[in-house]
Amino acid sequence: MSRIDRLLAAMTLEEKIGQLTMVSAGLTPLGPCLPHDARSEIALGRAGSVLNLWGVERTDDAQRLAKESRLGIPLLISFDVLHGHRTIYPIPLAETATFDPLLWEATAHAAAREAAAEGVDITYAPMLDVSRDPRWGRIAESPGEDPWLCSQVAAAKVRGYQGAPSAFADDRVAATAKHLAGYGASVAGRDYAAIDISERSLHEVYLAPFKAAVAAGVAVIMPAFVSLAGAPMTSNRHLLRHIVREAWGFDGLIISDYQAVAELVTQGVAADMAEAAALALAAGVDIDMVGGAYARGLALALERGLVRSEWIDEAVRRVLALKERLGLFDALRPRHRAADAEPAPTPASRALARDAARRSIVLLKNANSVLPLSATGRRIALIGPLADARLDMLGPWSGAGAAKNAVSILEGLRTALAGSDIGYAKGADIATSDFDDLQAAESAARNADVIVLCVGESAQMSGEAASRARPALPGPQQELAEAMLALGKPLIMVLSSGRPLLVSGLIERADAVLATWFLGCEAGNAIADVLTGRWNPSGRLPVTWPLELGQVPIFFSEGPTGRPPDANNRYSSKYIDLPVEPLFAFGHGLSYTRFIHRNLRLRSHDLAAGDDLVATIDVCNDGDREGEETVFLFTHDVVASVARPLRELKAYAKVQLAAGKSATVTLSVPVAALSFLDASFTPVLEPGEFEVYVGPNASPRALLKSTFRVRGGA
Ligand code: GLC
After folding, report:
1. Any residues with CB less than 8 A from the CB of 629 and at least 6 apart, and which?
2. Does the structure show a pLDDT above 70 at 39?
3. pLDDT at 333 over 80
4. 124 lines ligand 1 (CB under 6 A)
5. How, if at all, do strands 31-33 and 648-657 pair?
6. What distance, in Å, lies between the first and last C-alpha atoms of the chain?
7. Confidence band (pLDDT; 50, 70, 90) for 378?
């Protein structure tokens, strides 16, 4: 008899429900701690997992409590290690801008190493919600607007957090693909709001990254808070059982979002906790996160015949199976215990964080080559509420990160330009109307040759429960920017944010603009590396950057219309008061050099199903310094049984080029990847004419075009 069978046979119903119940530690100034009631629940075998706990002492203590319970079943200890644990890396939206799967994997592994060393077994990452609405605060946590790109991130992050799919090494944690699915389509960009999307969008856009995560072996899935067409994800039996578990073959754990099972009552599908617990368990939710719904309602649901005892056993099995895979029965993790009570970033993790951060920076504009700053002679005025804001550089969900371990922009620039005259003034607050530092800002700016204006959002204005109906510069920052621009000096705007900020007017008037997102603990050094030219910016936008909020949702893989936008045709799909083009296209990002793209050619224009589409393009570095270019390949299925998006991202490639050098870049796509879901949502590859577009971003103006055919009977 296996250990799991033995335990199941010995468990009381209360202990089984305990394994399906998660309690939470609370955060105190000294770090997380388990409240008394949670401690007693664990000791009595009424809680089998914990949220928000880390630290060798604290996790050992919690595991000891569990070991001393009647059956001594160890705990699953979980935490949101989304972009770092002690060392904080760029937020996911920023890191996606590197378009580097090896980097995505490396930072996940580094974060897993730090978290596992402090007793964490499960991280609630990667977040895989395709996001196309800058009003939604959680766009910061996402890999951006494209399902194919999000799927690449999904696979890389699962590899990084978990390592080899068989078992978890000491420096790995179980990853969670969250929040399944469609959360990024919350109505009006308002967090937690219901979603109303087509079944096709659900499958083609929002489920795709989760399917990729399951294929990569992700251990846990978390359903989203939202409801789709009246069916909350937490009790969506069709999605969770029939698609995720049966069609995709997912045999891992499904953990609800925070209190989401209990909230099925508020969602209007359950009359009480017993019904809520029954719906969630029937849908396949194994663990109730902190809501107490299973603890309060599952026994009653069983009595009422709303659930079967085998469903409870099935869920307990999956929980115990993950504990076994994590080796928790055999030895207390962490085997590589963190040395100190409060570990800090190491030189190695800081080097990785700095590299990830500077490669996440997107140079949006650089008129008159005002950047890079020359190392000597220039008097610089560093102005703005985000110039010396260590904590905000960490962004939302900053784990066990600490402001004391972060480098502000001011600190980074002073280190990089030691000896230079760098004046600093906050100028204004981020959120309040406090504007009393304006004089100091104007004075510093008047004494300078160039102004570096550091504005944007605070970390609290991004992430969960941070939707903004006006995603521009909050507080008096707009006035501060106007005052700085009025001085008529070269002005570089550094935007710190968890989303594309709608500041078109300021971008138009600034000489240079950097999208620096929230870059983590090495933000200041990374931004200084780019400002001074030590690093030639290479980031590319993972989301379309709107001109105005009225264009939202705006994304490149839009479906076709019978009346394509035509400035010369009134009766075409456009606005009468705004262009349809975004301010910056998906993939946009400038360099301190210049690249020219020529001569798109295909190895063959006539392909069968088993072939690869192979495109080559010549890229020339036409500038005066080395740089990295990224080129993207999009396809369009011209005629199909279901109208296909105008452009679908299928591949990208990077190339490093010295000044004046050229290279031929090759991009290859299996023809099978041109399949899509037919009217009955069955994957199909249809023969016919295809267009292929290759270039530095998704703007039609930047793309070279060719065509090819997929042969019939392929
Ligand atoms: C939150 C978030 C989810 C997170 C969980 C645990 O409400 O929606 O992303 O993993 O609770 O912190």
Report:
1. 591, 595, 619, 621, 654, 655, 657, 696
2. yes
3. no
4. yes
5. unpaired
6. 51
7. confident
Q: What six digits make up the tokens of 45?
A: 């075998």
Closest CA to 23 of 7, 2, 10, 39: 39
237 vs 538: CA distance, rounded Å: 43
Give yes or no for residue 145 CB within 6 A of ligand 1: no
- Is 708 close to ligand 1, i.e. is its CB under 6 Å away? no
> What gap in Å lies between CA 154 and CA 159, rounded to an integer?
9
Q: What is the pLDDT of residues 390-407, one digit of tens each?
A: 999 999 999 899 999 999
For the chain, which domains are there? 1-77 (no CATH), 78-284+291-318 (3.20.20.300), 347-551 (3.40.50.1700), 595-710 (2.60.40.10)
pLDDT of 92 over the 70 cut: yes
CA–CA dist 613, 605 (Å, integer): 8
Q: Is the CB of 288 under 6 A from ligand 1?
A: no
Q: Which residue has its alpha carbon closest to ligand 1 atom 3?
A: 257
Please give the distance, rounded to the nearest whole angstrom, from the Cα atom of residue 254 to the centre of ligand 1. 13
Sequence-distant (6+) residues with CB within 8 A of 368 are 490, 511
Distance 259 CA to ligand 1 centre (A): 10
Model confidence at 436, pLDDT cuts 50, 70, 90, reads confident
Whether the predicted pLDDT of 418 surpasses 60: yes
Give 519-548 as a DSSP string: --TTHHHHHHHHHTTSS------SS-B-SS
Tell me how far the alpha carbon of residue 462 lies from the centroid of ligand 1, in angstroms.
14
What is the CA(257)–ligand 1 centre distance, in A?
6
Does the model's pTM come out above 0.85?
A: yes
Rounded to whole angstroms, what are the CA distances from 342 to 524, 622, 689? Answer: 23, 49, 60
Q: Which residues are catalytic?
A: 257
Return d(Cα 274, Cα 255) in angstroms, integer: 18
